[in-house]
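Researcher: Checking consistency across runs. Here is Peptidase C39-like domain-containing protein again:
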Amino acid sequence: MIRAIANIRNLSPWKKRVLYSILILFCVLLLVATPFLIYAGRVYYIKNFGIKLTASKDYPVTITEYYRQNDPQWKDDTIGNSGRKMGNTGCLISCVATAISNLDVPITPKELNAMLTRNDGFLGADLIWYKINEAIPEVDYRYSRIFNSKTIEKDLEKGLLPIVNVRYYHTGITHWVLIVGAKDGEFIICDPLDNGTKTKLLSEHGKVYAYRVIERTQ
C-alpha cells in the first residue's frame, strides 16, 4: 500500500490527473449502481430463498367459498394448448378466478381458462399475466418483485386477495395460494388443492417466493 502511494506521487502531473479522473469515475459509477445492485440482490433473494410473512393485526376472512383446481367441473380441462390438466397444475388459474370473482366479476376457472386460451394467454401451461386484462377488461393484475407483510396487509385493507407463490408443504413443489385474511400474526389462505370450504395458515407452506394481486380497472 505504501509503495503504491509512493508510485502515485512519482507520476507526472498529467498521469496523476488521468488516474484521479478514473478513480472519480469509478466512484460515481459505484454510487449510481449501488441502489440497482441492492434491488437486484433483494429480488434474487426473494425469488430463490423466499421470505416469511407475518401479520401485524387481524383481518377478518369474508370469503365463504373458493375454487378448487380439482373440481370435477373442470379438473380434466386442458390449460391452454399445453396438454396439462387443471386438476394437476391449475392452482394459479383457480386462485385468479377466485380473486376476480371476489371483485364482483363472477367467473369460474373453466371460463377463465377458456377466455385466456382464446386470447393466447398461456405460454405452455404458464399464465401470461398481462393477458388477463385483454380477456377481462374489468380487471388487471399488479405485482412487485420486492414485497413484504405490509404489501399484503395493504391489499387486504382494500378488500383485495393477494396471490402468492409457495413451496407446497415445504416439498419444493411450486404452488399458488390465495391470502384471504389474518389472525394472531398468521396470514390465512385458501388453498386450491383443498376442498373449497376450509382455510389454513400460510405458514403451513412456509416462505413466499412471488406475489401478485388482481384489482378492478373500472
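Researcher: Does this match what you'd expect to see?
Model: One thing to look at in this run: The radius of gyration is 24 Å.
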